[in-house]
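We examine the record.
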Amino acid sequence: MNFYYLKQIFMNPNTKTLNPRLIFCSIGFLISINVCLAQTRIDGQVKDSRGKAVPFSTVYIENTLDGATTDSIGKFLFTTSEKGKHVLIGSCIGYETVKDTIIIDKPELHFTVKLKGKSIVLNSVTITAGTLEANNDREVAILKPLDIYTNAGAQGDIAGAIQSLPGNQRVGNQTGLFVRGGDASETAFVIDGMTVQNPFSTDVPGVAQRSRFTPFQFKGIAFSSGGYSARYGQALSSVLELNTFDMPQQSTLNFGMNMSGVQASATKKWNHSAAEFTGYYANLSPFLDVSNTNFHIYDAPHGEGFSVKWTEKTKTNGLFKAFFKYDMNMNGQDIPNPDTPGTVIPFGVKNHNEYFNSSYRQVIHKFVLNTSVSYSNNTDRIGWGVLPFNDNDWRGEWRGEAWYNPSDKISLLLGSEIQRYQYKQGFDTLSSKFNELLAAGYLEAEWKPATWFAFKPGIRFERSNLLSDNSVAPRIALAFRTGKYSQISLAGGSYYQDPDKKYLLSGHRPRLEQAVHYIANYQWINNDRSFRIEGYYKTYNDLVKELNTSYNPNPYRYVPDTVKLDNSGNGYAQGIDIFWRDKATIKNFDYWIMYSYIDTKRLYENFPVKTTPVFVSSNNLNILLKYFIEPWQVNLGLSYAYASGKPYYDPISTKFLGNRTPDYQDVAFNFSYLATFGKFFTVFYLSVDNLFNRKNVYGYRYSYDGRNRYPILPAIYRGIFAGINISLTAFSKEEL
């Protein structure tokens, strides 16, 4: 990947250039000023049919990248170099999109955009099976990135908030997302269409880790619990798709301080470009000083990092984005010994992680062309007792896509991607590694022959060079409008994935694993109320199965190349998810209720019989409450999470994984207060996890003879977290 040549392709040839090394390190932060262009300033306000302002709606010029999102009182402002006759478009969730012809012939233009009533009729039915959107681009939006921060149980973590959605499992002693019977390896994280190899902080045995990215770095978050697009592969269960902002609305400056450290961010916006920077220092010592931990921490988690981003619009309706993030973190603690239950091992880790993502999008009449590249590198230096453990992995990816939209009724997507990645591990004097090269091509269409019907077929072909195996994955989705505010969606297809890396590292080369999804949902949205019920059935085929081996519960065990295995494993997952959200019944009050039931069994890896895995709870319930006290500028949040007991391994039990842990319950609370000091806008916040200090247990470990049992406990029972955020840009009550 050569960033210098990318710059030569995408930059204006008349633009002054800087040292390529500086450009790579700052992602274009100091790219020289564009040639001055005559600009027209367009501003105004978006209102509904009753004259009421419509906040957070979108206004833009058709077939260009010029536009803006309205503020909390419905006002917008942007500049454009376009001239002559154009179409100005206004849209918002719950309103019909409007188009007005305008003439751009003056330095300043002022418009009032009137959205046609507060109709939430799904005039253009949208396929929703398996997917929850969290952006402002589609009428089926359920969540926004802001909801992640105001979710009392999420603690500002993207993955923490997604875990409260239907279809997810809360697995407090393992890192990752566990979706509809799948383990953490079956969920893919993507940013702007590119796979993220290390979305979470380095795994610490027995302690779930946070994701590396913050919600406000993204304009949209789409979570698919199954039936996802042909654009993506290498995920048997789920895809979490994160999309970064294009052009920021304005220049900003922010500073934050909390019990885990400090951070600062700044955004500078020019007419056609913008630069963003974020830096942080983290140290959990203050947090741990007021927390009672369940095991000894001899080196409090600490580290630092930064991210930079450059965005530029070209004269030809193109958009270039480049994003770079660096993190360095360290910690050390005594953890339960997975090989000798009842004893502990000192576990210390130093992690370095770099992630780069760059994309260019070009609009040419009814075509949208996109090309992206990404690269990540992750290094862990681990002390596991007295033995060193080193881990290094990297991934490079290229994706090219072309969308053709001849009309509002049909769109076509043709794309391809190439991924190259490597894992390398060293333990004491032993070392192992593998290199994988994946190449894929895909074709997908969406056809809406009528306003009440949408049809989306697709197909994906993928080649694994490491396994010398091919896959052809057909997929299909469709939706019917059933009423003024309701619709039914269906989805299904085949999904493939490489086997777990523990087999590939030791030299095993089985075939690709497969899952087949069948999904049906009903959705109703009206007047800030949303109801959704979804049923699913999923089969697992060609799972890796070890032959003639005994069960070992250690998730970090090494599988030598002498172990015989094949793809005879199989399984199923079936269940129902229910979601209800109401923001309308009581002013300034918002509540969600989410319930999931799952029945799943597998015969895979070193399982002796088909049974439910240890990371699955049959019943999961999440209730979230938020209330804004307007006179006091205070937001209160409360959440309740329940999960029925999970299976655990008892070596002397007559039934394999037949026992269940106690039910999991957690009540979390958060508080935030908005204040103004001169020109500075400030938010104070406080959150308490496990408010009633319930002694939850994640599972049990046993001595080799099975006579002694040791509980697997969370790092802490109750956590208290507080902080402050200061900004030169005003907050609104929705930002609490």
About this structure: The helical segments are 3-10, 20-26, 145-150, 158-162, 285-289, 501-505. The radius of gyration is 26 Å. The chain is about 5% helix and 55% strand. The first helix runs from residue 3 to 10.
